Inverse folding.
């Protein structure tokens, strides 16, 4: 495919994703309105609302990746308490955690701060957290701490852990990612890309995944300089 044709197709795709995102926003509002008029905490509507939010986050990630690829993306960096970011992730996931009876523990020093893009970091972590609670048995842990010149945000679960094929690839290399099997590939690629854009001097953000969770399952770590 000629380069100009690829660029044209990429622009059309980005426009389509933007339209879908707008439609999802309307759908989310309607679901929330209908759910409010029905039985409190109706599990069917909780599931619908959660899935609509998840799709909306995927659309946001695709648009951000398009802008990054076309040099149209800028981070909105400011200083934030990491507890605020963890609270945002917890709020995003609360309905499904309650519905699936998943126990969540959160640990973060009150004074721990980070210079980062709040919206993209919290949404990216939310995607990883969604996969963790989806594959967990009964527990998920969310934590943050200082790690040398970096702050480290960690998500752990008590599930079966990451498969070997995912542990053996570089999540920043889109050619190694499996885009067919589910959202895990997009989530890891997106958060790795966003992390790498966070720079401080000669240091830049990065992610690590392994199966050394304190709960016995998968462990995801995001390092920000």
């Amino acid at each position: 495919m000629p380069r100009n044709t690829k660029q044209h197709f990429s622009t059309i795709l980005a426009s389509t994703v933007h339209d879908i995102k707008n439609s999802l926003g309307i759908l989310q509002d309607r679901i929330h309105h209908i759910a409010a008029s029905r039985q409190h905490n109706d599990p069917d509507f909780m599931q619908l609302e959660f899935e609509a939010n998840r799709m909306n986050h995927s659309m946001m990630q695709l648009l951000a990746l398009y802008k990054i690829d076309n040099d149209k993306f800028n981070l909105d960096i400011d200083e934030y308490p990491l507890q605020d970011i963890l609270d945002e992730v917890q709020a995003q996931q609360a309905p499904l955690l309650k519905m699936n009876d998943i126990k969540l523990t959160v640990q973060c020093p009150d004074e721990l701060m980070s210079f980062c893009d709040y919206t993209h970091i919290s949404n990216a972590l939310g995607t990883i957290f969604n996969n963790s609670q989806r594959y967990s048995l009964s527990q998920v842990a969310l934590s943050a701490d200082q790690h040398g010149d970096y702050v480290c945000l960690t998500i752990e679960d008590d599930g079966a852990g990451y498969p070997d094929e995912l542990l053996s690839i570089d999540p920043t290399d889109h050619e190694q990612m499996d885009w067919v099997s589910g959202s895990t590939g997009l989530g890891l690629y997106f958060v790795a890309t966003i992390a790498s854009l966070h720079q401080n001097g000669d240091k830049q953000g990065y992610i690590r995944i392994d199966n050394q969770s304190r709960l016995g399952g998968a462990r995801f770590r995001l390092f920000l300089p």
